[in-house]
Specification:
Layout lengths: L14 H4 L2 H28 L4 H18 L7 E3 L4 H11 L2 H20 L11 H23 L20 H10 L3 H16 L11 H16 L20 H6 L12 H28 L8 H18 L4 E3 L1 H9 L6 H15 L2 H4 L4 H15 L2 H9 L2 H16 L2 H22 L2 E8 L2 E8 L2 E2 L4 H9 L6 E5 L5 E2 L1 H13 L6 E5 L10 H6 L4
Parallel strand pairs: 4-6, 5-7, 6-8
Antiparallel strand pairs: 1-2, 3-4
Helix pairs in contact: 2-3, 2-13, 2-14, 2-16, 3-12, 3-14, 4-11, 5-11, 5-12, 6-7, 6-11, 6-16, 6-18, 6-19, 8-9, 8-16, 9-16, 11-12, 11-13, 13-16, 17-18, 18-19, 20-21
Amino acid sequence: MQDKQGGFAVGNLNLKKYFLPKNLKKDLPSSIVVFLVALPLCLGIALASGAPLFAGVLTGIIGGIVVGTLSGSQLSVAGPAAGLTVIVLNAITTLGSYETFLLAIVLAGVFQMLLGILKAGTIANYFPSSVIEGMLAAIGIILIMKQFPHAVGYDADFEGDERFSQTDEHNTFSGILRAVARINYGAVIIAGVSILLLIYWPKFKKLAVVPAPLLVVLTGIGLSAAFAGTGFALLDKQFVRIPIVNSSAEFFGLFKSPNFGDIGNKQVWITAFTIAVVASLETLLSLEAVDKIDPIKRISPTNRELVAQGIGNITSGLLGGLPMTAVIVRSSANVNAGARTKMSSITHGLLLLVSLLCIPFLINLIPLSCLAAILLMTGYKLTRIGLFKHMWQLGLNQFIPFVVTIVAVVLTDLLIGVGIGMLVGIFYILRTNLRNPYFYQIDRNGDKKVVRIKLAEEVSFLNKAAIQVTLTSLPKGTDVIIDGSNSRYIDPDVIEIIHNYKHNAYTKGIVVQLHEIKDKYDVPPLKELMYNPTN
């Protein structure tokens, strides 16, 4: 596997590690969890996008099998993304046909491959950690708030929605209030029992060979059957609704092909570029977030991921699916379920395919409330109290961007919220950089005051004003030592200020000595300039 800044090649896959018993023991149960989480999300996102339900499941299958195989990430899971629903819905309407929209998806995939080849994935290196942590916590809060209505039997909003403003003309808060007023007690019982099983079943080590989420689903099916004909009975819309395929001819009839005749349509290219940029940004954010919660702390190659996503989107567009990204909800569920390798993601794609072809009637017996319970627990793990305590201990320059990101993501959507968090995070980075360009020490040489100014490891043009103010405010008759021995980089503007000050200081009776300050420094990588702790 290549490093995070690495190229786009798939590289040599070490297939043996994916089939090691110790890995399969973790990956196979995890794949069931991801499958159960992904299934309603694929259907809900397709419904909200104005696309066929089959397209959502197909995208999940391709995301699991194709992207999962090509990706360098061991834990990331790709599939249809809630963040693209508005773009997809508007694009289908604007372009006039679903087949023309599929052409835009294919072109978007080509754009993503080019971005990977050009190593645009390195932009992920510049996401502040506080913002990524805030995004994870925000997703956890969103999961809890968005899944609560489904857990109590109110399913007006589509599964997988992450936006504050909902498609049912309500928002997250009003949706919760409406859900409380429309509780289905059968759904509440199923969700409550499911949460208890998720908490306590893993404590029974000998019984835990059966994954708790699988037991939750079986229990949910059993309880919903027991409630039939009673006051606790669930409505049809409170169950999973996967398309039922009765024959191979009907199955292959569900696939659609892009309309290549519209290749000259300007709007197709604009839509393709928009999808490529938004999908790539969401993918890189998700990849960075998954690497943070990976217990083994592996680093995923971002450029290779863009190529894998590009190939996935080309495949999806050619077969009739939706645009896809790496998705943080499914990926975090994968991590929390204990996955170790990409075999979990690939197997979840195979399970989606099997469920569509072989057991759709059984899948449609699963209550949404028990799947909501799984997502509620995932949300709780992402937004644990300990994370807030940890960020507080890191100081306000980390805690404030963290909290701002959470609030912004919860009250808008993922990309807008992260963008706001990035602006605040960058402000604090610049603020820290401006305030700490040097260390100031005052000594005495007999009756004469000696001021030693030791410059920081990285001194950028942003430090110019602070250093100039300090030098011009030094009292007359002072000996000044400007020490650059610790500096790997000093901006040319700062060097010019230092030399000008030395040249003119004699008029104030100030003697200036320069220690290990070169006339020119090689420019360091941007990330080192922004994040070096000495700044």
